[in-house]
Each structure stands twice: as C-alpha cells, then as structure tokens.
Amino acid sequence: EEPQPQADSTKEGYHERTEMEPVLVTRTEEIEEIRSKLPAVAAEQRIMEIIHHFDVCVVTGETGSGKTTQVPQFLFEAGYCNNKQMIGITQPRRVAAVSMAQRIGEELNGFAKVGYQIRFDRKVDNSTQIKLMTDGVLIREMSTDLLLTKYSCLIIDEAHERSVNTDILIGLLSRIVIYRRQQNNPLKLIIMSATLRVTDFVDNSKLFRITPQVINIDSRQFTVTNHFSRRTNPDYVDEAITKVKRIHNRLPDGGILVFLTGKEEIERVVEALSEPNTRRTTPAVQFSSKNSCLEDEFMDANVDEEVVNDLDDFKSDEQEDDIEEGVDMTQERSSKKLKVLPLYSLLSTEDQMRVFEKCPKNTRLCVVATNVAETSLTIPNIKYVVDCGRSKQKVFENGVQRFSIKYTSKASADQRSGRAGRTGPGHCYRLYSSAVFERDFPQFMDPEILRMPVEGLVLQMKAMGIDKIDNFPFPTEIPNSSLKDAIRTLQCLLALDSEGKITELGNQMSLFPLAPRHAKMLLIGNQNKCLNLIIGLVSAMSVPNLFNYPSSTSDPDNVKEDEDKKESKLPVIQAQADVLQSLAAIAAYSWTPTSDICVSLSLRYKAMRETEELRKQLCRLVAQILAPDGVSTLQKQLSEPLNIPTPTQISTLMQVVAAAYIDQVAIRQHLVHPSEETQKLSVRQVSRTPYETCSGQVVYIHPSTIMKQAPDLIVYESLLVSSTDKVRMRPLTVVSLSQLSLLAKSTPLLTYSKPLGGVYKAKVYEKRGETYQESWVVPRFGFSQW
Ligand code: ADP
Ligand code: MG
C-alpha cells in the first residue's frame, strides 16, 4: 500500500494549494496497462501532494520507474496548463528530449499538445502545453524572459548527470522560484534524478534557502546478479562480441544491452553480430593501430595499458564459463534470431527510435549503446547487460582537449547493471574484474563544470545581468582558473571590457545560439559584403564532425602518406584555409540537400541537416536584428543557396576567422627560407613541422589539413592530444604578419573597435645559411601585460 500523502504543513516553505480544475484524459488500454505497472504511477498522489504544497522538490527513483514519462502527465492532469502556461521538461541529451516528447504525447492520447525544442529542431507553437527541451534551450529562453513566466512548472530531468547547463539552470531557478512566489505566480520546480546523489542539491544552503522536499519513488527493481570477469581484458570490444554470442546461444529469452564507449566500437560489434552464423569474423583489432581523434570517436591507445595488473587473477587464462552461473536454465535455450541495433548520439533520430519498436516473435533484441542507455532511455525487456566498464570522457587541460576512454564510475556501472532488472531478475556481465572495479572506478563522475571551458556560459550570464559570477549559487563552483580563462577570452573578443563588464558587442553576441567566437564572426562579417557566406561558415563550424572520411577520424600519428586526401571529394576553396572546407560542404549541400550528395562527398547527412537548419535559423535571427522592418526580404536573400566565394570574399572570410581566433595563433618555430616557400610538402612533412602557441607550447598541425606547405603563422581552432602525446592543432587559416599586427593593434574589423593594448613580442627564428638565428619580433599575446 502506498503511504499516505505527507505534505507536512508545519514544514518551512509550505503553501496552501491553489485550486485547479483537473483535466480528464482517457488513454488506450494498452498504455493504461503499461502505466499500471510503473512505480511512478503508484506514487502519483504522494508526488503531487508535495508539488502542490511546496515550490521546490527533488524526485528520485530507479531508471525506468516512470519519472520522465509520467510526472509531466500528472502535472497536466492536475490542471497546471489551465492558465495557458506550459509544463517544461529539460533533458541534457537531445535524443531524450525528442523521444520523450513523442512518448508522452502518445500516452496522453491527443489530450495534450506535446512539443519539443532542441538546438536544431523544434516542434512547438503557441498551443504547446508540454514542452521537452534540452537544458541549453531553456537557458536561452531566460535571456528574453528571465522569470520564465510561460511556465507553471519546470522539471529538470537527469540532474544527477551534472551537465554544465543543468547545474546553471538549477542555480538560476533557485532564485527565480523566489521571485515568482513574490509575484503571486508560483513556479513549481521539480528536480529529477536517477541515483541518490541528491545531497549536492539538497544539502547546499547556498543553493536553496529552504531545503527542498525529497520524494523517493520505490521501484520494484528485480535483483540483478553481477558477474565480474576474472581478469580485465583490454580488448573489451572483442570480448563483448563473444559474450553476446554466448548469451544468445545458451541463455533463456530476454533482451541484451551492451554498453560501449562510442560509434566505432558499436558499429564493429553490430557488424560482427549481424552476420548470420558468425564465428570470430572480426580480427582482434590492435587498439594501438587504430585510433581516432575526432570529438565523438576518440580511442586512446594506451588507455588499457595499466589494466592487466597484479590484482587480476592470471591463473584462469581460459575466461569462461561463468555465463550460466546463477541463471535459471529451466527455460528453453534460445533458438531464436538476434536483432542487433546500435544506439548512439551521432545516429539519426529515426534510427535511434528503432530500439522502441516491437521485436518480432522468435527474435531476441540486442542493443549496442553508449551511455545514452544508462539513464535517459529505458529499452524495454532487457534481461542481460554486458558492460565494458568504460566511457569516453572529454577533458580540458590548459586549453588542450583530450578525449580518452576511462573507467566509468561505480555509480554508473551500477546504473548500467540495473538496466537488466526492470522486468524480472537479470544478469550483468562486467568485462572487468571486481578488483579493478573496487580499486580503479571512482565513486562518481566529476560534474562537467569542472572539466569544460566556460566562456559561452560566462557571456550568457553576463548578458543576463549576473555580474559577480563568483557569487553565483552553482551546485559545484566553477574552478577559478577556468573562470579566468573564460573572462580573458571574452575580453580578447571585446565582449567584456577590461573590468569584466559586458560590452555592447558582447550583448549582441549573446543573442546568437553560438559559441562566442562564432557569434563574433557573424557580427564582424556584417560589416563586409559576404554576410550570407559568413552565416554559412559559422553554421558549419558550429556543428561537429561534418566529414565522414577516415582522415578526420584516424590517428594523426598513423596517417599514411597522402592516402587520406583521396577521400575528400570537396573542391579546395583556398589551400591556406582549412576552415573554408566546411563552407564548401555547406555550399554544396545548400544546392542539393540530399543524403545522396552527402554520400558522394563523404559528408555526414545528420550533421549537414543540422548545419542547414542552423543556417536558416541564423538567417532569420540576423535579419531580425539588421532589418527589423524587412525581415522576410533579407532573410530570403541570406538563405539562398551559397556560391563558392570570390577571391576577395575568400580573403575577407579568412580575416574574419582570424579576428575571432586572434588569441589562438601559432608561429612556426623555424621560419621558412624564401626558396623553400613554394615547395610542396607531403602531409607528413606538414604535420611534423613544429609550431609554438602564444603561451609557448609546442604544437603540430593535424594531418587532416589541406595545406601543402607549412606556413609561418596559423590561426587554430583547438588543440588536442594525440596518442603519441603530441599536441595537435586543428588549423583554421593562415594569416600574414601584417594582418595579425593590424588585427591585434586596432581590430579594425570590429564593430566596436578598441585598441587591444599591451606590447606583444615573440621570439622567432630565421634560417641564415645553415643555422637558425633568433632575429625578429612579432605580435605575441601576453595577457599578463594588460
Ligand atoms: P525514468 O524516467 O524513471 O527513467 P521513463 O519514464 O523514461 O523512466 O520510462 C518509463 C517506461 O516507459 C519504461 O519502461 C520505458 O521502457 C517506457 N518507454 C519510454 N519511452 C518509450 C517509448 N518511446 N516507447 C515505448 N516505451 C517507452
Ligand atoms: Mg528519465
């Protein structure tokens, strides 16, 4: 029996309930049947009692207990949309926002208007009553409506993930709730989280003055038996394949869910398992020979080196057969087919949704997923989990990005195994030993705010009028150094003044759903006659992983001589500006927006669709700002298909890029002798030429470059570490010394120009005869001299 409602009227923060007319919803029998089994539905009265009487609460419960799909429906039925206000739900992942909107709409059977909004896609209008969105979208909405008056309730979902945006939202909302109460238009804030790490939000007096109410949904989680491996095999991908085959061949019915770290691994497993009657068709790939440096696809060669260690039991070289251990074998063994589906964020939405399709009779479902399936999406009928115990993590250190595969946390390993116990007792096969688990897995993952650069966030907050960022109630404070870096970058872009106050330019930049540098490009491009091209370029730069050819994903230190160049089929716009290849991509796509063109040009269709979507959105925004009276004309003009730029336009584009990345310049350690200048180099030679950044770090050009020479000065987009520990830069464009000093001194391209101040000096070397001599001085960006 459900415990009685317990909205204690003596507790601090208790309010009398506002009377509301409930909304009657009739659902299909099938849906009612499913709902009746959900723990959240059993707890409806308890949850709603608290929400009615308190402004802030925290709802926790096992993944799959029905928090995300049910709580919005409870609110809707209770009448929280009656005054034309909406119920908003945020998600850290786009996949979840879209699929949950669909599911909630289905369950509500047409009685409510359910929409969603993510950065590149929206299905919302004036009549929307329940809106799912990514946390970033809600933060943007705050810049025009700080008190979020459109919403009667806001659910911040998956708060345990501690994404930067979720953290900021909770900080901001902790104050907004108080204002809304004062204005007699209370906002209900519901923080939802899977694991019980609620102390970060609850016992944090800086965050909530009144301790939030905590409601725990007791779920009927069945027992899951964890089977550790006797030793930790570094090639967990191969091991996962073997394990799935064994489970499928030997164990009773029930879906299999495999956790891996990224697209490449997943596709390898899907391929190996999809072939009928496969034995070991995939070679045991040597990880060190196949690495990738691309954002979503990084595999670190050395990551597992420390894995085989003294803690593991070496005696049992023959790993198995633990597979039948503890499993109820009274059921028929499987003679079924295996339906294998991948699930990761780079997949198209339609493909992602296939995991929810009904599985045909006589077929066992096997989903091979990243940690998307850990808490955001619950795949029905999973009985077996195979967990590699790792996840891909993005780390920034001194401005250098590093993607590496690391052990996940104990908390997330437990989440993963929990996926096997939704519909009955389950089994989790952990591809690591219990000793490694105990010793090497951290209890929890660090919140994202401790790992990411925050300039976008700082600009957004400054634009909202939050000046003292160090006083802001973050669930976890921004590290001092990353706050300093962010302010410095924004000052360099002239978005903040020397005191850290937001400038007019900064305010304008904050209006765009873009990284500050990209917003700046738009604003300075506005002064030149190629705004449509800049919009296209910025859109392409804002979407990661446009290109599909291996050179962009393979290990920079293992590129075969010039081999990769064959695969890029885009025309080279300007051999000194890699960045313009993205423009070439969007230009081609803008004429023929089809998946065929993407295949033939080796572009990623999903990414190109997003780029084009963003381009349209930016055209609208820019037109609204520049020509409030003639929005549609200008918008139409801007969004026409893009032509390849003329030479004059090319040089303007290169300058605009340089201006926005003015603090990210690298200079060649040894300047080229004039006679060497015209010599064509191989990719390998180009990528072996040492450069030095403004802070004196030695870096090399990423071999995905189109450059055939190693120029003196390069503006780069980002730095990343490759498997040999070399720091690689993704080049954007070449700049000339005179351009650079001009940009640095007076930033003449800027709308609000202001001298950058300071004396910039750098040591460089010139080849004189056989020796290199220190000789001349170029701009160097020593911020300490400000
Ligand atoms: P929680 O948020 O507590 O993790 P959810 O509300 O996401 O739980 O899931 C509740 C149930 O709804 C799960 O059993 C899940 O499988 C099911 N479900 C969610 N989305 C879909 C969908 N698109 N199709 C079918 N079932 C779904
Ligand atoms: Mg959920």
> What value does the Rg take, in angstroms?
28 Å
Number of strands: 24
Low-confidence stretches: 277-320, 561-566, 746-766, 772-786
Tell me the strand order in the biggest sheet: 4-3-5-2-6-7-1-8
* Overall body shape: globular
User: How would you sum up the major sheet?
Assistant: 8 strands, mixed
Number of helices: 26
Overall helicity: 25-40%
- Helix/strand class: alpha/beta
Beta-strand portion reads 15-25%
Bound molecules: adenosine-5'-diphosphate, magnesium ion
Span between termini = 68 Å
Mean pLDDT: 82
Question: Could you explain the architecture of this structure?
Answer:
- Its EC number is 3.6.4.13.
- The chain is globular, with a radius of gyration of 28 Å.
- Helix 6 crosses helix 7 and helix 19 packs across helix 20.
- With 786 residues, the chain is an alpha/beta fold.
- Strand 3 and strand 4 form a beta hairpin.
- The protein contains 26 helices and 24 strands.
- Bound molecules: adenosine-5'-diphosphate and magnesium ion (MG).
- The site of magnesium ion (MG) has 3 residues, from helix 4.
Q: Briefly, what is this?
A:
Keywords: ATP-binding, Helicase, Hydrolase, Nucleotide-binding. It catalyses: ATP + H2O = ADP + phosphate + H(+). The chain has 26 helices and 24 strands.
List keywords for this structure.
single chain; 786 residues; alpha/beta; 8-stranded mixed sheet; 6-stranded parallel sheet; 24 strands; disordered C terminus; binds adenosine-5'-diphosphate; binds magnesium ion; EC 3.6.4.13; RNA helicase activity
